[in-house]
Amino acid sequence: MPLKNNYRGIVEYTEDPIVSSDIVDNPHSAIFDARATRVIGNPVCTDIGLVRQRIWLFEPNRGLAFQNLIMLSYIIPEISDSEIRDIALKVNRNERISTEEALILFHKADLSLLAVMANHVRTRINGNIVSYVRNYHIEPTNVCIHKCRFCSYSARVSGYSWAYSAEEMIAKVKSLGKDIVELHIVGGVAEGKGVSYYAPILKQIKAIRPDIHIKAFTAVEIQGMAKFGGVSVVEALSQLKSAGLDSMPGGGAEIFDETLRAEICPTKSTASEWLAIHKQAHQLGIPTNATMLYGFFETYEHRVDHLNRLRKLQDETYGFNAFIPLKFKNKNNEYAHVPEVSIIEDLKCYAISRIFLDNIAHLKSYWVMSGIDNARITLHYGVDDLDGTIGDSTKIYSMAGSLENPGMSAEDLNQIIIAEGFLPQERDALYRSI
């Protein structure tokens, strides 16, 4: 069977066989098909039967990645549920699953099988690498015009407020070390502050640190800037880009179902507006992330609908860099009576997100939200990115009951990733290796 050349990778010829003869003779030919079409790229080998070659995915230690790619093929014949088995076969063949099949996985699939399927997808896309970035957050204000019922960050709920001046934000930038490559700016939607207020701040940041990547402002914030500035969203995005905006975070998506959204964040941008703003950003050459708030009282149907709307937009624009599931935290907000979901539910959400979102390259575990111990576990459920060092610069999840004073060194992140059996890769804000 000739090997197809449709995926990144390197083949280094050697006299050492990569697999033993019992695997070569295994009748489950899908194993070899998966290897041939999903792992091996340039240069092309002549025949899968010639196993005298060493396959490197993106790194010298190929063991876990190779295991992830072949494990699903071995498990499929043992799956007793025919619906689940058919879905696993599609995943193994690199075929897109439907919304109906995603719901079947949520309702019926065993967590261990979801882990195998999700890791199969992440390995095919990202090899055995887990990435992170040296980043810093500036949160200009927690004063906000919106009244989201799940929010613990707003001054309306917390009882205390801050609003940094432009000078204070610039001072923070001046204090940053040269190792910080990504600046994340996100906060509340302040009354009256339009794009003409924020664009000059971005210009000043770029004048001080032309090398730093500015990832700033949710779609909700940009809609507010456009409204208060008396301009269209497209014009606001264009002005921000000209001033130095490099990409956008994915916050404000919450959950897209209109009825549920009207309950939890009635004054915030609608689902259609959020999607339209990200589409407009993509069309202007501004890449973005995407998120989903889960774990309050949404249903699996709500989650799948949300994922499907993201996947459809990504099919159009290919502007999303990463997807980040964000768990509802019940401290200090109007939904304090709603219990938080278990780690089992977290892992299920990560795994199915990775399987379903076949066109978004990266799945991020935001360790500030989940805690580093839980984030480590998510690496085995499809996650390939741990966000960044952060340096005790964010309060959004701390105020909802997550980690106080969050910050990790690059060395800490390296050791965590290695301990879980993956290869750490420091990256820039656009997922390019540093």
Mean pLDDT score: 83
Structural class category: alpha/beta
Oligomer: single chain
Number of strands: 11
Global geometry: globular
How large is the count of helical segments? 18
What's the N-to-C terminus distance? 37 Å
List the secondary-structure elements in sequence, H or E: EHHEHHHHEEHHEHEHHHHEHEHEHHEHE
Uncertain runs are: 1-62, 397-402
Range of strand content: 5-15%
Largest sheet: 3 strands, parallel
**Radius of gyration, CA atoms, in whole angstroms:** 22 Å
Largest sheet strand order: 10-3-11
| Percent helix | 40-55%
Q: How does this structure look, described?
A:
With 434 residues, this protein is α/β, with parallel strands linked by helices. Helix 2 packs across helix 3, helix 6 packs across helix 15 (343-356) and helix 8 runs parallel beside helix 9. Helix content is 43%, strand content 12%. Strand 8 (320-327), helix 15 (343-356) and strand 9 form a beta-alpha-beta unit. Mean pLDDT is 83; it is low at 1-62 and 397-402. It has a three-stranded parallel β-sheet with strand order 10-3-11, covered by helices on one side. Strands 4-5-6 form a three-stranded parallel β-sheet, covered by helices on one side. It is globular and about 60 Å long.
How would you sum up this structure in a few lines?
With 434 residues, this protein is α/β, with parallel strands linked by helices. Helix content is 43%, strand content 12%.
